[in-house]
């Protein structure tokens, strides 16, 4: 069904998708294509997958297609020859794509590379669908300050945060006692540490419930994803670390919960399909139809929950520690994890080395007070250098 009208005005909503060639990006493209009368596409961006980017741009009649890797500009130009799609390349061009006058920007670049373009969108005061959690982890105070300053609407796309957002009574924040993030536990939920020492990148990216990009799949396997999400939730909902709980819930049916002072606990449920939280952001403040599987609790039968194991999955303890320490600690945590995950995916380090490298980088790099975004960049760069060095010594 086409959406009644997701806008109060009758005109279609204009959208830019940063990272359209990724997992979140492709799901966003899919939803837009199913509702062609409700959206016009202002810009699409990718990093190097020119063939898919060009194909999406033609399919969605995007005005602009941008490839972040400048060496791919000619390929993009060739792929779009004869079309009316404007082309551009490079980091600055991605920021400019985010600055185009779209009503909504889907921020779905992976990693802190998404920070500058996401900020450009926020500074236009538009609706920003936020999948790119790393930008909030690395520079959360600055991002949230810009959201407030420019009156942007930051709508979480991460499924746990979308769930919490949907049941979070913003008018009565003082009645919220705790928020609870659920975690699938990832593909190695039942594995011993000794077994985890030998897992391969292929095993790590094979998530039991969700289909996602490589980096977040590894984050899910190490449970660093939940550590990143804890910091993300802290910024999105202004909750101190000790009022955010994490619960392993292998069925991935309940995505997030909010506990209120009267004892009520509200949650959002759904099949594990990112098109539900993505459609929530795309249609916000209205709901739009999504083709996700319908939830049958009768078929599922049982929902189970337990506390995460801090010994096999040290990431949550580290995330809580960096939130308490503040300053540049979360920036270091994120950067070291990005470096370690890319080395694990490249087969250069083992699975358990990821947490080791993050922990050692946190010990090695001073977590200074961050005064501005240049300080964030500098701390990020120092952490990357230290994590690179630690990775070569593994
Ligand atoms: P993918 O790896 O599938 O896609 C990443 C996208 O970012 C691609 O379009 C890629 O382009 C682009 N990209 C990569 N590096 C750069 C760069 N340096 N500059 C500009 N663009 C770049 O990631 P996901 O879609 O899985 O994840 C995206 C974000 O959403 C992450 O922050 C993740 O944590 C978050 N998220 C993802 C979920 C999921 O289900 N996948 C769930 C919840 C959150 P190219 O394809 O050309 O390489
Ligand atoms: Mg999530």
Can you describe this structure?
The chain is an alpha/beta fold and 394 residues long. Among the domains are: 13-156, NAD(P)-binding Rossmann-like Domain (Rossmann fold); 326-394, Rna Polymerase Sigma Factor, Chain: A (Orthogonal Bundle). Helices cover 45% and strands 15% of the residues. The protein has helices at 23-34, 50-59, 73-79, 91-99, 115-122, 133-150, 159-167, 193-196, 201-205, 214-222, 224-237, 275-283, 297-300, 315-325, 329-345, 353-364, 373-392; strands at 13-18, 39-46, 64-67, 86-89, 104-107, 127-130, 153-156, 176-183, 244-248, 254-260, 265-269. Helix 5 (115-122) runs parallel beside helix 6. The longest helix is centred in the last third of the chain and has 20 residues, at 373-392. The protein is globular, with a radius of gyration of 20 Å. It binds NADPH dihydro-nicotinamide-adenine-dinucleotide phosphate (NDP) and magnesium ion. NADPH dihydro-nicotinamide-adenine-dinucleotide phosphate (NDP) binds at residues 19-25, 46-49, 68, 94, 108-110, 113, 131-134, 158, 210, 212-216, 274. The site of NADPH dihydro-nicotinamide-adenine-dinucleotide phosphate has 29 residues, from helix 1, helix 6 and helix 10.
SSE topology sketch:
Layout: E1 13-18, H1 23-34, E2 39-46, H2 50-59, E3 64-67, H3 73-79, E4 86-89, H4 91-99, E5 104-107, H5 115-122, E6 127-130, H6 133-150, E7 153-156, H7 159-167, E8 176-183, H8 193-196, H9 201-205, H10 214-222, H11 224-237, E9 244-248, E10 254-260, E11 265-269, H12 275-283, H13 297-300, H14 315-325, H15 329-345, H16 353-364, H17 373-392
Helix pairs in contact: 1-12, 4-5, 5-6, 6-11, 6-15, 10-15, 11-14, 15-16, 15-17, 16-17
This protein binds NADPH dihydro-nicotinamide-adenine-dinucleotide phosphate and magnesium ion (MG).
């Amino acid at each position: 069904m086409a959406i009644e009208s997701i806008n109060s005005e009758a005109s279609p909503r204009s959208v830019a998708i940063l990272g359209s060639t990724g997992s979140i990006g492709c799901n966003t493209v899919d939803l837009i294509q199913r509702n062609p009368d409700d959206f016009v596409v202002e810009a699409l961006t990718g990093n190097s997958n020119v063939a898919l980017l060009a194909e999406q741009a033609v399919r969605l009649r995007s005005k602009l297609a941008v490839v972040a890797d400048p060496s791919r500009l000619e390929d993009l130009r060739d792929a779009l020859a004869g079309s009316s799609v404007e082309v551009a390349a490079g980091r600055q061009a991605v920021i400019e794509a985010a600055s185009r006058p779209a009503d909504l920007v889907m921020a779905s670049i992976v990693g802190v590379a998404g920070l500058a373009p996401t900020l450009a969108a926020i500074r236009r005061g538009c609706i920003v669908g936020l999948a790119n959690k790393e930008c909030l982890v690395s520079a959360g105070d600055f991002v949230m300050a810009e959201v407030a300053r420019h009156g942007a609407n930051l709508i979480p796309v991460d499924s746990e945060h979308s769930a919490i957002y949907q049941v979070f009574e913003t008018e009565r924040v003082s009645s919220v006692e705790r928020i609870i993030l659920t975690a699938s536990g990832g593909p190695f939920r039942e594995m011993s540490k000794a077994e985890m020492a030998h897992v391969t990148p292929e095993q790590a990216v094979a998530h039991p419930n969700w289909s996602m990009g490589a980096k977040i799949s590894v984050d899910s396997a190490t449970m660093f994803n939940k550590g990143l999400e804890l910091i993300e939730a802290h910024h999105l909902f202004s909750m101190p670390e000790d009022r955010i709980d994490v619960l392993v819930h292998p069925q991935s049916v309940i995505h997030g919960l909010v506990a209120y002072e009267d004892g009520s606990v509200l949650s959002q449920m759904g099949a594990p399909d990112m098109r539900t939280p993505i459609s929530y952001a795309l249609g916000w403040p209205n709901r739009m139809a999504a083709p996700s599987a319908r939830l049958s609790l009768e078929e599922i039968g049982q929902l189970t929950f337990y506390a995460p194991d801090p010994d096999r999955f040290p990431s949550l303890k580290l995330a809580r520690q960096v939130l308490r320490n503040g300053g540049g600690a979360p920036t270091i945590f994120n950067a070291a994890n990005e470096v370690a995950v890319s080395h694990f995916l490249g087969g250069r380090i083992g699975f358990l080395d990821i947490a080791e490298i993050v922990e050692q980088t946190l010990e090695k790099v001073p977590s200074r007070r961050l005064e501005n975004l240049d300080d964030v960049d500098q701390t990020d760069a120092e952490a990357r250098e230290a994590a690179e060095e630690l990775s070569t010594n593994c």
